[in-house]
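Justification of computing resources. Each target in the renewal requires a structure prediction run like the one illustrated here; the chain below, 187 residues long, is used simply to show the kind of job we budget for.
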Amino acid sequence: MFVSCPPPNPAKHLVESLRRARIIPDVLTCEPQAVIQVLYPCDIEVQPGITISVDEAVKEPIIRWKSEASKFYTFVMIDLDMPKAKGHYLLWLVGNIPGCDVVRGERIVAYMDKRSSEGKELHRSLFLAYRQYLELDFDEPYLTAADTEGRAHFDVNGFAKKYALGSPIAANFFVAKWEWAWNWTAD
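Resulting structure tokens:
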């Protein structure tokens, strides 16, 4: 008799990591059922909770999640660790994504390629994907990559409620580490 073990559930590891990082319950109340695949240049693949240098997250990553090609989705990326004066900070927002093809979605807030080191040395960056029930007419202002106004105090749960998105179907996150290079000169 041949016995095989079921493959490990990647969402289980994701949920455990989200709990350890206090993203569940501080930001999310429900457990996402899938992991968003995030790939930065130079083959940096984001596994839930890994630590990467901010410099490695400068370029817009490739994003994928399990989706239905005939459905629309909304994708959000936020920084959870800006100083309280700024709250959760919106890094990227794309709506009306056909399937998981983020490139073909409606870019509402461009990917922020320059990050602030305000607050802590470590910043949790959270990726969320929501299934839409229909194509939406977003009334959020468009922000370019250089725009900083309008990104602070982003309420992801309020946004999801406003557009009837429900709970995220998929998530992932990493911890961005600020590394300062000291230039010591001898006199």
